[in-house]
């Protein structure tokens, strides 16, 4: 086992306005816009190729978003999964996989190769409970519970061939992988790839590159971990933000890594959430679309 390469990338700032909990960056390769959420604002933001920022206020805490085939945005709100039309501002309720009987909300979510929205919940009990889950949501609002016993569902991403799904639990600090059928969305048994220490970075949001490596935001360690298909950290990207939450690939050639972060005083001084970017030595994949 070789020691991981330590890299300090040349960072540029993408957003001047502060975020509370920046999350869920998604690159729209058709328009060149970067979408993301500010969970507690609560709001969706769209950053144009020229850097113009459009803000869409949401009626409840917003955990994540995905692109739809009809140019709407699928959003995971505290009150359930909704379809948002950025042109009209209309928000249409689709389903509520969590229900109101547990103290939690929807968290990390992503559209999969099967055109469904995969979204997990997070426990908001104090102390947190292992009553969160991962759900698969269809265009007709149908919901299937896929995995239970979670505390903070996170880190969804798929291998380039769509035959493996990655998933993490930020609180329980593990990364797992499932065999995945991209045509049907059927999952095989989950298997643990690795566990993380706080120093290595609790596994938050993630992305995969065209070579099959998994990029995990180490939210407790100010870094991105590039991880091989067998769970080995091969590269560590040291970032100038204390609490990175999720990377995504974007730019015209999908070689720019955008990284969101959350407000933190982990380093001893308060730092607002933001979005940063750097040129990666890897190429990403365009996002899947819902519907």
From TrEMBL:
Residues 21-262 form the SMP-30/Gluconolactonase/LRE-like region domain. Binds 1 divalent metal cation per subunit. A divalent metal cation binds at residues 23, 154, 204. Keywords: Metal-binding, Zinc. This is Sugar lactone lactonase YvrE. One of its GO terms (molecular function) is gluconolactonase activity. Its cofactor is Zn(2+). InterPro entries: 6-blade_b-propeller_TolB-like, SGL, SMP-30. Substrate binds at residues 105, 107. The active site is at 204 (proton donor/acceptor). Signal peptide: none annotated. It comes from Rhizobium aethiopicum. Belongs to the SMP-30/CGR1 family. One of its GO terms (biological process) is L-ascorbic acid biosynthetic process.
